[in-house]
Design brief:
The complex is a heterodimer of chains A (323) and B (444).
Chain A lengths: L20 H23 L1 H22 L9 H11 L7 H13 L15 H12 L1 H5 L27 H4 L4 H6 L11 H13 L6 H17 L7 H10 L3 H8 L10 H21 L6 H10 L1 H7 L13
Chain B lengths: L24 E2 L5 E5 L9 E2 L11 E2 L4 E4 L8 E2 L4 E10 L5 E9 L20 H10 L12 H4 L10 E6 L8 H8 L1 H15 L3 E7 L3 H11 L5 E6 L8 H9 L14 E5 H12 L6 E7 L7 E6 L4 H7 L9 E4 L6 E3 L12 E5 L17 H5 L6 H9 L3 H6 L10 H5 L6 H17 L1
Parallel strand pairs in B: 1-14, 9-10, 9-12, 10-11, 13-17
Antiparallel strand pairs in B: 2-8, 3-5, 4-7, 5-6, 7-8, 13-14, 15-16, 15-17
Bound molecules: iron/sulfur cluster (SF4) (2 copies).
Amino acid sequence: MVINEKLIVSSSPHIRSVESVQSVMVDVLIALFPAALMAVLLFGYRALLTMLIAIAAAMLAEAIWLRKSDIFSDGSAAVTGLLLALTLPAAAPWWLVVVGSASAIIIGKQVFGGIGYNIFNPALVGRAILVVSWGGHMAGDIWPSPQPFAFGYDAAVVTGATVLAAPEKAVTFSLPEMFIGNIPGCLGETSALALLIGGLWLVYKGHIDYRIPGGFIGTVFILGVLFGGGFYANIFMTGLFHVVTGGVMIGAIYMATDFVTTPVTPAGRLIFGIGCGLITMLIRLWGALPEGVTFAILLMNAVTPIIDNFTIPQRFGGVKKSA
Amino acid sequence: MAKFSFRGGVHPVYSKEITSTLAIVKMPLPQKVVVPMQQHIGAPCELLADVEKIEKGIEVKAGQKLGDNKGFVSAPVHAPISGTVVDIGPYNHPLGMKINAVTIESDGRDEWDENIKPAGSLEDLSADDIRKIVREAGIVGLGGATFPSHVKLSPPEDKPIDVVIINGAECEPYLTADHRVMLEKTEEIVFGLKAMMKALGASEGIIGIEDNKPDAHKQVESMVAEEENIRVCTLPTKYPQGAEKMLIYVTTGRVVPAGALPMEVGIVNHNVGTAAAITQAIREGKPLVERVLTVTGSGVAKPANVQARLGTLASEALDFCGGISESTLKVVVGGPMMGLAQPSADIPVIKGTSGILALTDEDVYLAESSPCIRCAKCVSVCPMNLMPTSIAQASEHGDYRRAEKLYALDCFECGCCSYICPSKIPLVQWIRIGKNEIMKRKNK
Ligand code: SF4
Ligand code: SF4
């Protein structure tokens, strides 16, 4: 009989699923498509441009840093770039986008050792750097009001960064309007509907754990109901308002579920989600800033190893922790 | 239908359709067999040395005992064919080392030992008789675990057994030997189950079959329709449904405590092939000298379910199935999830050999591993509810104390974690290294 001299003797299992880091990242990009589409429908071609620049800059920064020619590679840089873009105002100047993307990749990820080793969510690191260093630009006249299906960009119609800055004015927006996303805000954060569609698909594909967005959104809602204040007659409306405005949806579904920087245990993920919700609401209701999602997630990223360590799951057939 | 479902698990490509409809074919009598003295978990056999001394040059009959060990956890080995002992010495073993083995050259007559005779009807046999027959026949777990069966039939006084489960899950991809045995030896399985229930004084018998084998399910169901205390349990198709603890949980809802044996919760479970072997030992007096195995994989020209004498060389079994192709990358003994890759096919079929696979790049996924992205997919699929990524990492860093704290020893190497990992990290390999180190330290 033929005996191949080079039979491979490696460890079981001998078959592997076809899923790769790249295929998972492509799935995340697909999941973000509805949100990206809504961004273009609401904020016009500038939104498209911002997203393309951010993705390209992120991929290039990574390729240059790692000195490799495969620009798309595992796809994680593209995800980071797109996520960052979705948290920027529609009319952010191109250089701001490039700087944000490059810092997300290099400072947020590569200096830690690359994918798998970073502690903080790279896209949020990029965003935080922009907020801290170019706060003036981030708060300036680059926040156009959404103009559904206009595709153009009217620099005259500007608004504030988020309705959260003046919730009492938000009452002018109806709940369906807020749910669909026809409100001021970052490119990709306004349409709760689009984000939800992508999120459900990711849960279905098994890429994200419902516990993180569940814990996050649930906590925001409950705290919103209890302490949100009286600008809506119905306190549940206030809770919903806190969920669908600002960065809660995009943060809970896409940022707080970032693999690398969040816990791996089921209980840890729930705690992580709840923690994010708690800090977000602390900042929103009692802090100095109108919005707190970015810093909530970054803070929770920092304690992820500790959470993992305290939530080691009970093994099958195990008794309460003793041995 | 099963009321319970175990946590985790994966759905690999099963590739069972290659052989699931092919009836078992008997391989012709081999010219030569190699019989290792260790084909079970427990103390290895020693060659018989007194009355019938086994040494080079003597003639043996099929079914004649070659080696045994007085230890309780052990099982004798027998000559699978009649012929001359031409060699005794270390030989390649599927476990990846050389183990003392007896090589017999066939005389082509297949003459059986005259002491082999039926043991009588089940009614006349006592529990002790059954245990003795099973032990003397050298029967071990044929699913691959190779734990001596008589030990499982001899629980300590304080651990009464009320349920015997027959494992017909066959959750490993590619393998269809158990499936065929269920179709072609249905009656023997049921008889074997009854014998075991009698030996244990158990009141209930359960035959668990995955729902991807509806024909086997129907056939077994009709065979036990009249039996009051035997039922068939349909198991959802999910790997590792056939793992002892998962099977017990799914069929009865009982949870075997970590680190304990099933008898702790009043259960004993056996593979379908084991049940059929026990029947043969009782009815015909024949020891375990042949078994059914699946020879398959993209590298095999004519995949088949074969019935082969133990000691048949894997290379011969593969040749019988048309030989393997040049592009074969791996030869695996067992299933693709838990089987062992072999450096050569010059190894004997032993009691636990449920399959021989020749895998090409159509089956195996060869990829460099990349850093862990902490996606936790390994955590979600682990049926033991462990943290494979963290155990592997601890083991990689030589931090065996942490690996132990993360319950590395509870890992039964099912392979789900490595299978699912998008970074293609060989988690099981790292965990295995960690387990070995922990055990070394414990035994010090
Ligand atoms: S499946 Fe692989 S990449 Fe994901 S957490 Fe486990 S080891 Fe890491
Ligand atoms: S850790 Fe062990 S038991 Fe858990 S999935 Fe991996 S191999 Fe299976």
